[in-house]
Amino acid sequence: AALKDCEHTLGCWPKDGFFEDGKCYMSGFARSGGSPLWFLPPPGTRLVPPAKYEVRCQIQPCTLNDYLLQKVGFHGSEIKNCQPSSYEEMGLLQRKMLILAINKSCAAQDCTEMQQRVVQLAMNLT
After folding, report:
1. What is the dihedral of CA 29, 10, 80, 113, to 10 degrees?
2. 91-104: per-residue pLDDT in tens?
3. Cα dist. 85→14, 35, 82, 91, 94 in Å?
4. For residue 74, what is the DSSP state?
5. In sequence order, what are the residues at sequence separation of 6 or more whose Cβ sits closer than 8 angstroms to the Cβ of residue 88?
6. Rama region for 21: left / alpha / beta (φ>0; ψ in -120 to 50; rest)
7. Which of 41, 45, 66, 75 is the most buried (most CB within 10 A)?
8. DSSP letters spanning the chain
9. Dihedral sign, CA of 100, 97, 45, 89?
């Protein structure tokens, strides 16, 4: 059976994002999935810049090192969610740690205004 759309499909994730000003962003369609952290790729993945001759950022598995370090948030041109659980599956302490890690990733680099806005929204969840 064909999927109607992400809004009406359990566990649906967008397949890619867009590339602007040297950084990847999840598509605005990711909001329809309902997660308050819609700007992150699915758990265990990262959004990486497009390959040569491509125009869209691609979701790829995390590297083993990033997964072991559970890197999340904005890292250079990539967005990482290299940990195993969705926000909805986490307990309160795990959620707070995730949001703090996202905030720290933005503080550690020059986040764009758009990235700063979504981080601020996430900080309001704690």
Report:
1. 30
2. 999 999 999 999 99
3. 17, 12, 9, 10, 9
4. E
5. 35
6. left
7. 41
8. -----GGGSTT---SEEEEETTEEEE-GGGGGG--TTTTSPSTTEEEEPPPTT--EEEEEEPPHHHHHHT-EEEETTEEEE-SS--GGGS-HHHHHHHHHHHHHHHHTTT--HHHHHHHHHHHTT-
9. negative
Q: Tokens at residue 19, please?
A: 């590339």
pTM: 0.82
Question: Tokens 């740690």 correspond to what residue?
Answer: 97
Reduced to 3 states (helix: H, G, I; strand: E, B; else coil), residue 36 is coil
Question: Token pair of 77, please?
Answer: 């041109």
- Tens digits of residue pLDDT in 14-47: 567 888 888 888 877 777 777 788 889 999 999 9
**Sequence letter at residue 83:** Q
Return the exposure string of 46-70: e unless at least 16 CB atoms fall within 10 Å of the residue's CB, then b: bbbbbeeeeebbbbeebeeebbeee
Could you tell me the two tokens for 80? 């990482």
Strand partners, 36: none
